[in-house]
Design goal:
Layout: E1 5-11, H1 17-28, E2 32-36, H2 49-52, H3 65-76, E3 81-87, E4 92-100, E5 105-109, H4 117-122, E6 125-130, H5 133-147, H6 152-174, E7 180-183, H7 189-214
Parallel strand pairs: 1-5, 1-6, 2-5, 6-7
Antiparallel strand pairs: 3-4
Amino acid sequence: MSKVMTIGIAGGTGSGKTTLTKRIVSQFGGNISVVYHDNYYKAHDELPYEERALLNYDHPDAFDTELLIKHIKMLKEGKEVESPVYDYTIHNRSDQTVIIKPTKVIVAEGILLFQNPELCDLLDIKIFVDTDADVRILRRIMRDVKQRERSLESVVNQYLKTVKPMHEQFVEPSKRNADIIVLDGGYNLVALDMIMQRIKSHVEQQELADQLLLR
């Protein structure tokens, strides 16, 4: 058994991926590190804000997935990584980075994690959060207007022009690569309990192995 368990949490925008991730982190704390695919959006310093705002951020090409794959491999090898940080308010990477330390469990979260075969191969457990489209768009509107300083009109336009078509073309088909499909994300307590038990078992086995090495 690998010392590091890697879990992928994918699903459409507003599906509840982050809620599920936060519940897992709150349960296991220092034994879990999270890598967000959104932070690996490609930088576009060469474009003005107005042009960056028009880019398609829901296509696989919008992400530097090769760097994410490299970082997950490094974490599995016990090495810390320096993750980029994406700033939604300016549609670009910020000048900040964040250090992610290797832990017993690595969670990767993002809409298109399961679209990339090489990335899928790195994930021990692939969880797809499946939520009704009406609920997802309402959650996205609330989030983007309140947290990301977007106008209601811009959120709706982006959803209709790129988010919905890309979901149908890339995100929904990637569900076939999932090991577990969870309805309503972190609010599905039955699925959440099963996932927690699997993680708990891994953490306990690794803690026992660590103790044996110290003897």
